[in-house]
Amino acid sequence: MFKKLLYLAALLVSTNASQASVHYVKSTGAGAQDGSSWSNASNDIQAMINIAAAGDQIWVANGTYLPTHLANNTATISLNNRNNAFVLKANVQLYGGFSGAETLATQRDSTSLLTVLSGDLGISGDSIDNAYHVMIASGNLGTASLNSFAIRWGQADGSDSIMVNGNNILQMTGGGIACYGTALAVVNSLVDSNSGIKGAGMYNYQSTLTVSRDMFRYNSGVALLSGGSGKSGAIYNEQSTLSITICNISRNTAGGIMNHNAAGTISGSTIVRNIVGISNDSSSPVIMGCTISLNFGIGAGGGIRNTNYSSPVVTNCTFERNTSQSSGVNYTDYYGGGIYNDNHSSPSFTDCNIYANFIGGSNLNLYGGGIYNGNFSAPTFTNCSISNCGLTAIPTSYGGAICNDLSSAPVFNKCTIVYNVGTNGGAVYNSRLSAAVFNNCWIVDNGDFDTDGGAVYNDSSSSIFKNCVITGNTANRGAVYNKNSSSPVFTNCTITNNQSNIGSGGIWQYGGDVKINNSIIWGNASGDGVYLADGTATFTAKHSLIEGQNSTADGNIAGTVNPMLASVLLNNYNLLPGSPCINTGADSLYTGNLNTDLDFEGKFRLIDTSIDMGAVEYCGGHPVITTQPVSRFCCLNGTTTFSIAVSNSTGFSFQWQKGGVDIPGATAMSYTVSNVSYSDSGAFQVVMSGSACGKFYSAFAYLTVKSPAKITQQPTDTTLCAGSNLRLSTTTNVLGLSYQWLKDGGMIAGATDSIFVVVNAQLADSGKYILTVKDSCGNADTSRSAIVSINPAVAPVVSISSNQGDSVLNGQSVIFTSSVVNGGAAPQYQWKKNGTNIPAATNDTYNAIANADFQSNDQISLSVKNTDACGVVSVSTTILMYVHTSSTGVINAGNNSGHFSLYPNPNDGSFTIKGVAEGLGTVTLEVYNMLGQNVYNEEVPVDNGQLNKKLNLEKSLPSGNYFLKINGVGTTVIRFTINRN
């Protein structure tokens, strides 16, 4: 179906293209670069947008493109300016994913040919200088659209704004896409790795957006206001209307979808592994057919959070394995692992599966593993399954499935609440004047022996239960536990087969007055049906049968009489013929409409002369469903069957329904769905007709269609330099897959995740990589081949020298020069002293003054960076410098008595000294080492004004540099070297 939609969209592109101009863009440009064809493609997307007319299209080849034009003056190029962005133009469509040779849009492969619009300006990989917005859509854009692009590395962390098309664009909004006062369609695109204070991936203000078949992932909040708190949003809608269809919104620490004073629809989408899946603030979108799972709420509402008069309409959605926990923030109270409703919010949830949501932690207060309703909220849940939810902090956990708190007034209609665990209220905790209503609900198999109120815990609350069955729950004290003046009302309920450690397995009352009308409390382990725990506790029973209570006043039946329930262990709560509870209820005690209301099984609530006791109305000859339909998981294109068994089918007709709507031709006791498609997902039940009792209904069974394994985001070709980290990533359409990476056809051991990383990649890591994925249905998918090329690092070869050598005199000027091989086109130099950068010494030479810029024993070196591709930094060997002053016995050379020479230099210690010393009879020869120590001293004669002396230094003198000082009328200093190698 997806391919067909993509084909039709592309066909529309090619049809439109025949009626308007197409402008072509390649990352490197081509030919005349006027954008008239692929062979003359421009390399400037914005320039093509600027010249495009209404109805024109921009076709962009795969590659990476940076915004080079100022967003508030798109005619001006300003490289690496953070206010640069790609700015859309009215009625101009942008299409990516081309190879650069197509003549029809249908020929492109946008899945494997990624066209990236990147905000990574300046230093690559450093977000501090990234563009505030990668793309801006502002003002009336008509039919403008964005199709098949990756939009990444925007950084909306500024505090200022710019004016674009009449709108003030805040630098803190829309790291990926910033939309102001506009209408835009974004299709088949990837928005990832952006950051922002509001709307890390996309920010929409007073706009109408259509977002279809897109992926938003790895978008993060900026710490100024949001950080990783889920308050920034991969998508942030403010005073906007957004249509999100078949999208994947995953792994966003900024949060999934944030709505503030917003509306619209979210349908067919997967919202997974975000910090908060959906957050509605004064917003009421329609949410249909979505999977909201594995999201993480900090403090409250991992799956969906509704606050401040938000009333979204949620239908046929799955909330699975969401949680509310700490993430570095020191909260003590946590609320609603899956769903959080607060401050007058009244959402509706219909045909939803709320499964395995939880809150965990220690020494914390935890409220509502699955659902939390607080502060005058009034949500409605209809035909929902709330199961396997829980709280893990003991003893301060309240409501394993549901916590109704602070004057909230939720309504639960025909809901199944099963297999939940919490310390106070295994399934439900009602507190602080909440007024929850449960109609026709099945509260079954919740709690454990550490739980007070295995099914329900009422604390200062008066909840209402009508036509409900409470069964199979386990507790320390009571299936229903009431305290602090709680006065719940049970009307036409059946409370049976519950067990408790202490007191009654039915109702435990501590203070307050519980009201029991037309109800059956029977067969609960441990004690009577109602246990009064203190002297202030009371109960008022009318027209009810309560085990252990023998009063027959007010129409009650003595608790020693068996109510004759059909088969509690088989979940059959019908009254058998002859039951004393038939026709012995009081119509006046029933609070609904006896003309239209249905009982727990869906039969008429009033069949005979008077209403019956209990949740199920008796009808003579009426069949009993002995086996209810079972929920199914099915593979796409597979086959599955729902079926029921009844005690007597003669004379009765059957009609299967999906979502309350009759399925044509589905009139047998079983219903088989063949060639299962996604649209078959939903809630199924069978309706039996043909009895004077009217129609009656089976329990709901849910069909969940497993999508076949599909790689939705392909790994891309990668070229790296040796020593870099290799990262190949993919995204799949569903969770729970098995993964295996292969290199050049061979399996890579341990590479069994959707992401493959090699730290410090080397040349041997070059090759062809693919990923195979497989699901539990046996469906497999293989990625495209990602070509990885690791290029060798290019290291400069650096040597340095000093024009004065390594031994200089105090105050002497020294020039250090360099010789560099493999330095690249524009090598970067940095001279160092003792390993620390010398300020401003960034040329290929360094001029220094002895004792001012360096001292004795300082080490001078040079680092050189090759700035070409794969260039790295190399550091030369060091020159150890010596600075001598007069205190060492060596003074400035001055040739006042003639010219002297020493040769050969260097030598092994035997030197000849010649020179002119007119008027002198003798001169003194002194030799000093580099430490200024005198190692040789001799007075030698001068013959007729000529010095000619053979100097043989001792073998004990090591190789190294020395100074010869010739003292006569003046002083001459000659530097020489002994080399005994």
From TrEMBL:
Residues 796-880 form the Ig-like domain. Residues 1-20 form the signal peptide. Keywords: Disulfide bond, Glycoprotein, Immunoglobulin domain, Membrane, Signal. It is a single-pass type I membrane protein. The keyword Disulfide bond applies. Pfam families: Beta_helix, Por_Secre_tail. One of its GO terms (molecular function) is cell adhesion molecule binding. It comes from the Bacteria. This is Ig-like domain-containing protein.
